[in-house]
Amino acid sequence: MDIKETGKKLKPFAPVLSVALVTACVAGSLSGYEAPVYAATQEETPIKEEAKEKKEEKKTAAKGSFDLEDGVYKGTGTGYAGDITVSVQIKDKQIVSIDILSSSDDEAFFSRAKAVIDKIIEGQTLDVDTVSGATFSSRGIISAVKNALTGEKDNSTTGQAQSGQTAAAAGSSTSVAKVEDAAAYKDGTYYGSGTGFGGPLKVMVEISGGKIASIQIVENSDGSDYISKAASLIDSIIAKQSTNVDTVSGATYSSVGIIQAVREALSQAAVNGTSDGTQDNNSNNSNNNSSSDDNNSTVTGTVPYKEGIYYGTAEGYSGDVSVAVVIQEKTIKAILITENSDDEAFFNRAMDVVKKVIKTQKTDDVDTVSGATYSSKGLLNAIKNALKQAEKVTNGESIDEKPDLTDLKELIERAEKLEEDKYTETSWAVLQTRLADAQEALEETKQTIVDKAVEKLKTAIAQLESKDGKDEENTKYVSGTYEVTVSCTPDEDEDFEEYKLTMSVEIRNDKIVSITDITGDGASSNDSYIKRAANGTSSIKGVVSQIIDKGMPEDIDTVSRATCSSNAILEGCKKVLEEAERPTDMEAE
To answer: Does 384 have pLDDT greater than 90?
Structure first.
């Protein structure tokens, strides 16, 4: 299953995967990848200015067009000495970062090749030029990014193989073994070949008076800067009359290629002793294997779960964080953010945990991000929950939710017993619509959908209006819809400025049956707190639902990390009740 197929599988879940992210939303996430929140702790405040600068930088960047969910995707390409693995973060259809997870290529050349990363991000395209002098490495990075975003595999051979060498060729080592020098050489001109970074490298060695008189590089495929740097070891060879010299830092492959080529030329001129390259190549083979193991810092093929897309949700800072984890070939290939309501700046910072999971292929020992603790913890727990789902599927267990239908069935039974001729035509029509929705919800597998159906049907029953109006005669409160405005005041933390909160509250038969249109006139960063207070999260019940269940704003639990907004909603309901209270006979006179 490639990433394109993954995308197709995700489309039916579009309503679920909509950005609340992440992204949200990982897009994301794996994202869309989010309603901003106002920092409620000092811990998460300092980077707001940094986030602002990043937004300003984005104005000049090319617009992305990658049709992928927000999240982090993993891909592999073929470099000079072996595989190059990257993680690519997508947000709002743009590449926002590319991280190298592992590489077997020489550090000096690979560092140069990384220049393509800036080109890709700046242009939001994979159609960029390779880096001169680091062609194979830069091409490998481009292919790895392409694999991450499209699923297209890079089946090309390594640069070493293309230049006639194996992956364990001498040119891939950072050192060469010592050899026994010949006692003397026959005068003449001799040619020898080796392998530099870019391919074959050839030298001409002149012997005069039985000594090495000069060495010239007559052919090479390496970049001029690197070959010039490596050529400095020629003076060392001539001065020592030996090829047992150190390679040049920053031009390792080219240095090794020169030494190989000189040794081959000297082997033709040797009077006695040995100067062939066999031992050298074998040594380099061993060195390369250990070097490759050291460089390979990413783990692949270790996830013991069945291929597929798995979903997980957990509580972030201001609401739920949901992810989709894509598993292919026993590897976590991508983590998409499907829902998120946390502040963008903090959530982007928290995305580091997603990159760590992609890199290590595990969730153990992945620390939360300082300064974005709640967001990163939410992401990590959502990923863990998705992997728990994967474990169940692998073990043949069902992951279908079995929601509690008790309340829904009781409400449906209650609604079906009501008599149409007692109520107004409008209120009865609303009830029938909600009743039909509730009956359909009996077939749903998600508890959240069932709970919403319960709330809507309960509200419709409470909003029924009697035709003769007798129900109103003995009520304490005058039924109707009231708009109220109250102040939302900071607590002792004083982490936001006071603002006005407005909402509509409906009263029927001495009960609050509906609270809607809750808005604040302050900073937009307050919106997520208002939403959290009103609706709650997957693990915390919002104050609106609690009030409607009880019919009154009494004994209501405020929502953690949205306490001020919760109290403002409660205060608004109390104010409406005072306004709606029916005057006594004496007051009326």
So the answer is: yes
